[in-house]
């Protein structure tokens, strides 16, 4: 009798499993999203070789401990100091060295005021993304302290790279190089999302948004300037090439402002700035503002029904600027230098055969990885680029490239591998005899910046400070070459109701990828528009096809999905797929 009951219950279980499986298979959420190529990514290998992914989370935390150590006992010495000049805001702030032993910097040089927000803000952002509370560390609220970069004394009323024009010409741009004036505001918005409710931050954010609205209104679609004077509200031309991609930075900051404050004027001008960016006849890419513009266009297409040409902006980024009137040669690097693959790194494609930078290579992940939530047709291209890029970024660090291929191997233990070289050149440009014919060379420009700057200044705090972006975003899986890329960590101010991950399979055969969970969840792929697993509550494998990509949304088990106007909606209110 007991055996019959057991057989009966087993039969019910099998039937229920069959019904559940059948209902999953019968559910239709639309056609699989066809993937769109980025030509320059197509030129990269599916699987980089040799393959080595650093533990970026551990590395980011170690960097924070090393740089924010007020009693650094290493040969580097303290990399942080207090600046009590009280510029712009009546409070003490702090400075970080741009490069190790930079003679322009420190508490006793240039009144202690030469330090850069692009360094400090990136360091705070990276730390916050990997879970370090920079509002309460060693007795300091570093997030409050960086408000001194909000330049009120000069009347610009935006976040700038320095606190005062008196140090502005020592390096790092001040009112003469547009990206240096716009990007700190994107960083400030990002830091304010990671560390919300810091006293004074919201007022700064609102003021910056108003300044950018005024600027975009005056520019009225014409961004043909080297920089913009936000006090006079006037576009300016100087010896710096025109930087039309500043429109992408305006657009991004204004989109963040709209999502935070809900003011429709911010949305209006985010759109007009994107349209100014797209109105260019060719790429004007330099540094980071064009990728931020591409993200903004993708987001607006998904959420606001616009039809911006994201493909054009991506091609302009990857192919780079080919007009000598702009930042000629700036783009995404492809190929091998000597025995090393350098695919995916960002910098100059042309300078000395190529010059990649650490900071520039990490930061495009910020807009491009979350972008696939809104334009999943680029999941494969972005996944492939990220695999190559993350793999090659190890080469900036002195203990992750052999002695022969770095400028100062005798110093490779100087920072305990916490701080990278500034960049990676195809060929040495200092004329060091030992490096003749060697390619590539880990190197830095620090000794060129100021008389007396030592070789140690090739090691760049500034270039290493954003590594927390990778630290929070990049995880290896059980399958070599398949990364789990967190699409939410840098999707600032956007709806992030459900964890979302990008996976790219570089192999020529299907792979089973392990997903770990402790709570019952459903895994839904917005590329294939299908469930890959339902009601899993422990480690479980999902399959990903050869040379294919998935963007998995992790839903609480049993979440109801419905298709409304082409979008997939969870629980009747959260959009998880826009096309």
Outline:
This protein has 579 residues and is of the alpha+beta class. 33% of the residues lie in helices and 16% in strands.
Describe the structure.
- By secondary structure, this protein is α+β, with helices and mostly antiparallel strands.
- Helices cover 33% and strands 16% of the residues.
- The protein has a six-stranded antiparallel β-sheet with strand order 16-17-18-23-20-21.
- A hairpin with a 6-residue loop joins strand 3 (150-151) and strand 4 (158-159).
- Helix 6 packs parallel to helix 8 (246-261).
- The protein is globular and about 65 Å long.
- The termini are far apart.
List the helices and strands and how they pair.
Elements lengths: L1 H25 L12 H4 L13 H12 L12 E4 L9 E4 L20 H13 L12 H4 L4 E2 L6 E2 L18 H17 L6 H19 L7 E3 L4 E3 L9 H16 L2 H15 L10 H16 L5 H10 L10 E3 L3 E2 L2 E2 L4 E3 L6 E3 H5 L2 H7 L7 H14 L27 E2 L1 E3 L15 E3 L2 H4 L9 E2 H4 L3 H6 E3 L6 E4 L13 E5 L6 E5 L5 E5 L4 E7 L3 E5 L4 E8 L4 E4 L2 E4 L3 E4 L2
Antiparallel strand pairs: 1-2, 3-4, 5-6, 7-10, 8-9, 10-11, 11-13, 12-15, 13-14, 16-17, 17-18, 18-23, 19-22, 20-21, 20-23, 24-25, 25-26
List keywords for this structure.
579 residues; five-stranded antiparallel sheet; 26 strands; 16% strand; disordered N terminus
Beta content: 15-25%
Mean pLDDT: 94
Q: Radius of gyration over alpha carbons?
A: 24 Å
Q: Which shape, going by the Cα principal axes?
A: globular
Major sheet: size, sense and barrel closure?
A: 6 strands, antiparallel
Low-pLDDT windows of residues: 1-24
Counting DSSP H or I runs of 4 or more residues, the number of helices is 17
Number of strands: 26
Helix share, percent: 25-40%
Secondary-structure-based class equals: alpha+beta
Side by side, the strands of the main sheet go 16-17-18-23-20-21
- Span of the ends, CA to CA: 55 Å
């Amino acid at each position: 009798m007991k055996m019959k009951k057991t057989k009966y219950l087993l039969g019910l279980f099998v039937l229920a499993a069959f019904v559940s499986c059948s209902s999953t298979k019968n559910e239709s959420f639309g056609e699989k999203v066809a993937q769109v190529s980025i030509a320059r990514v197509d030129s990269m290998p599916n699987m980089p070789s040799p393959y080595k992914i650093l533990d970026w989370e551990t590395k980011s935390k170690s960097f924070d401990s090393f740089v924010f150590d007020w009693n650094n006992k290493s040969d580097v010495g303290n990399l942080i100091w207090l600046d009590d000049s009280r510029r712009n805001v009546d409070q003490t702030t702090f400075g970080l060295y741009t490069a190790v032993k930079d003679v322009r910097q420190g508490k006793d040089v240039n009144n202690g005021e030469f330090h850069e927000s692009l360094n400090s803000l990136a360091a705070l952002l990276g730390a916050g993304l990997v879970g370090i509370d920079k509002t309460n560390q060693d007795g300091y609220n570093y997030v409050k302290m960086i408000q001194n970069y909000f330049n009120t004394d000069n009347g610009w009323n935006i976040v700038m790279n320095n606190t005062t024009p008196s140090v502005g010409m020592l390096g790092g741009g001040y009112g003469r190089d547009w990206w240096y004036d716009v990007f700190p505001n994107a960083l400030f918005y990002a830091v304010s999302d990671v560390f919300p409710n810091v006293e004074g931050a919201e007022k700064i954010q609102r003021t910056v948004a108003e300044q950018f609205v005024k600027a975009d209104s005056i520019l009225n679609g014409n961004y043909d300037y080297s920089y913009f004077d936000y006090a006079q509200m006037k576009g300016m031309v100087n010896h710096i090439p025109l930087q039309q991609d500043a429109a992408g930075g305006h657009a991004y900051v204004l989109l963040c402002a709209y999502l935070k404050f809900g003011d429709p004027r911010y949305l209006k001008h985010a759109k007009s700035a994107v349209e100014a960016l797209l109105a260019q006849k060719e790429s004007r890419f330099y540094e980071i503002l064009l990728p931020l513009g591409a993200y903004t266009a993708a987001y607006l297409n998904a959420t606001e029904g616009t039809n911006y040409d994201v493909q054009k902006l991506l091609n302009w980024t990857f192919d780079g600027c080919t007009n000598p009137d702009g930042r000629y040669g700036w783009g995404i690097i492809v190929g091998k230098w000597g025995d090393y693959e350098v695919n995916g790194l960002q910098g100059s494609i042309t300078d000395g055969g190529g010059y990649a930078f650490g900071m520039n290579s990490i930061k495009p992940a910020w807009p491009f990885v979350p972008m696939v939530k809104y334009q999943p047709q680029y999941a494969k291209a972005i996944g492939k680029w990220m695999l190559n890029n993350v793999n090659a970024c190890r080469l900036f660090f002195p203990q992750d490239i052999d002695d022969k291929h770095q400028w100062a191997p005798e110093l490779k233990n100087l920072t305990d591998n916490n701080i990278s070289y500034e960049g990676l050149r195809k060929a040495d440009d200092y004329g060091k005899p030992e490096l003749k014919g060697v390619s590539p060379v880990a190197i830095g420009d620090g000794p060129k910046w100021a008389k007396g700057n030592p070789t140690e200044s090739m090691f760049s705090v500034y270039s290493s400070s954003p590594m927390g972006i990778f630290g929070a975003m990049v995880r290896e899986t059980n399958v070599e070459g398949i990364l789990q890329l967190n699409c939410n960590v840098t999707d600032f101010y956007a709806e992030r109701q459900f964890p979302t991950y990008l996976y790219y399979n570089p192999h020529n055969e299907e792979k089973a990828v392990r997903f770990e969970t402790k709570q019952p969840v459903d895994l839904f792929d917005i590329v294939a528009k299908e469930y890959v697993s339902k009601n899993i509550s422990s480690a479980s494998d999902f399959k990903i096809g050869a040379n294919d990509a998935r963007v998995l949304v992790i839903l609480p088990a049993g979440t109801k999905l419905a298709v409304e106007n082409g979008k997939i909606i969870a629980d009747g209110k959260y959009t998880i797929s826009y096309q």
